[in-house]
Write a structure and sequence with these properties.
Strand content: 15-25%
CATH architecture: 3-Layer(aba) Sandwich
CATH class: Alpha Beta
Number of helices: 5
Bound molecules: 1,3,4-trihydroxy-5-OXO-cyclohexanecarboxylic acid
Largest sheet: 5 strands, parallel
Helix content: 25-40%
Length: 151
């Protein structure tokens, strides 16, 4: 192991820029900026340079996945509503060399029926859902474990 930090991209999909005011009973009171700031610090303790991006546009998210693919950056992604229907995101993630971790603040499986299916789950390394903003921290820890050389 060297001391160089590895870059990790955290992507957030539509409406997540509204965290803090958006349905706080489901998504909590923290803003996305606050959650991302905490995870930049957490990432740093794990040896990651965390880059964060959010967009309401599928096109932006696909472009950022392509950039991470070319740079070989691991991805943590909360695709938000795109989780349930974006084959464009799924195809982009399927072409990423991995690891990719899907995260959700809520537990979509315990909510409305349309949320029970993720079209991206089949092409990611794993999914963490239902732990509020802690889902991102758990994803960084899972990534750290995935990237550690076997003992
Ligand atoms: C979400 C769950 C999705 O079903 C929803 O569309 C979101 C947020 C979550 O983090 O719990 O926007 O991805």
């Amino acid at each position: 192991m060297n001391d160089e930090h590895r870059t990790v991209l955290i992507l957030n999909g539509p409406n997540l820029n509204r965290l803090g005011t958006r349905e706080p009973d489901i998504y909590g009171h923290d803003s996305l900026d606050d959650i991302m700031a905490k995870n930049i610090v957490v990432g740093s303790t794990l040896g990651f340079d965390v880059v964060t991006r959010q967009s309401n546009s599928e096109s932006d998210l696909v472009t950022w996945i392509h950039e991470a693919t070319d740079a070989n950056w691991p991805i943590i992604i909360n695709p938000a509503a795109f989780t349930h229907y974006s084959y464009a995101l799924r195809d982009a993630l399927a072409a990423h060399p991995g690891p990719v971790i899907e995260v959700h603040l809520s537990n979509p499986a315990a909510r409305e029926e349309f949320r029970a299916h993720s079209v991206v789950s089949a092409v990611v390394s794993g999914t963490i859902a239902g732990f509020g903003h802690d889902s991102y921290r758990l994803a960084l820890q899972a990534l750290s474990t995935l990237l550690s050389p076997p003992t």
